[in-house]
Design brief:
The chain is of the alpha/beta class and about 220 residues long. The chain folds into 2 domains: about 140 residues, HAD superfamily/HAD-like (Rossmann fold); about 60 residues, DNA polymerase, domain 1. About 40% of the residues lie in helices and about 15% in strands. Strands 5-4-1-6-7-8 form a 6-stranded parallel sheet, sandwiched between helices. Strands 2-3 form a two-stranded antiparallel ribbon. Helix 6 links the parallel strand 4 and strand 5. Helix 1 packs across helix 4, helix 3 packs across helix 4 and helix 7 crosses helix 8. The radius of gyration is 17 Å and the shape is globular. The N and C termini lie close together (about 10 Å).
Length: about 220
């Protein structure tokens, strides 16, 4: 049975776009420049999801607290120049977006707006979405329910016809707190077991499945 929706809200990193490798490389470039120990990529991936400030805090650790402002500058410059080096869409993303061409769609991400917009344009995603809302677009980031309230004030849609599609715990927590449909992508950057433990309304392994799950 398909779930009928009027507004589709998509996360970005690890949901629409495979960005993990690029973020890992920019984090370790930053640490190397500051003479701080580099970190295994698998561990850095666990730092993603709460925005770049938290990413840098986790990567630098307590011993690097004094370097955080400089670390942010180095990371932002390096990532801004190299974010597209490894980035690519997950298979089936364009096909899904074309399939739901008539649905209202936005991107809601804890990635900064400028990075998101640049990447979305480079990957020919921007034309599918009415709006991109980044971490610096509003005073709130996921999973703050105030963020969804701000979104729904601009898109007056019944909550039971709004779907939040993402690969992260914050996406599902936001959906739960806001009373919208939570849809978990299990092959993104997020931990599969953590996502399943939150009891999402819908789960999927690849984007082709969503054409059968949503209407």
């Amino acid at each position: 049975m398909r779930t009928e929706v009027d507004l589709m809200i998509f996360d970005f990193d690890g949901t629409l776009v495979q960005t993990g490798e690029g973020i890992v490389k920019s984090v370790n470039f930053t640490l190397n420049r500051l003479n701080l120990p580099t970190i295994a990529g698998e561990e850095i991936l666990t730092f993603i999801g709460d925005g770049v400030v938290k990413l840098i805090e986790r990567a630098t650790g307590e011993e690097g607290r004094a370097y955080r402002e400089r670390a942010m500058e180095i990371f932002s410059d390096h990532y801004g120049r190299h974010m597209m080096d490894q980035a690519e869409l997950y298979p089936g993303v364009h096909d899904l977006l074309r399939h739901f061409a008539e649905k209202r769609k936005i991107i809601l991400t804890n990635k900064r707006y400028g990075f998101t917009k640049k990447m979305a344009e480079a990957l020919a995603l921007d034309g599918f979405f009415e709006e991109i809302i980044g971490a610096d677009s509003t005073p709130f980031i996921k999973p703050a329910p105030e963020l969804m309230q701000a979104v729904l004030s601009r898109y007056p849609v019944a909550r039971n016809r709004v779907v939040m599609i993402g690969d992260g715990v914050n996406d599902l927590l936001l959906a739960k707190e806001s009373g919208v449909i939570g849809c978990a992508f299990l092959n993104g950057l997020g931990d599969r077991e953590e996502l399943l433990a939150l009891g999402p309304d819908i789960t999927f392994e690849d984007f082709g499945e969503l054409k059968e799950r949503l209407a």
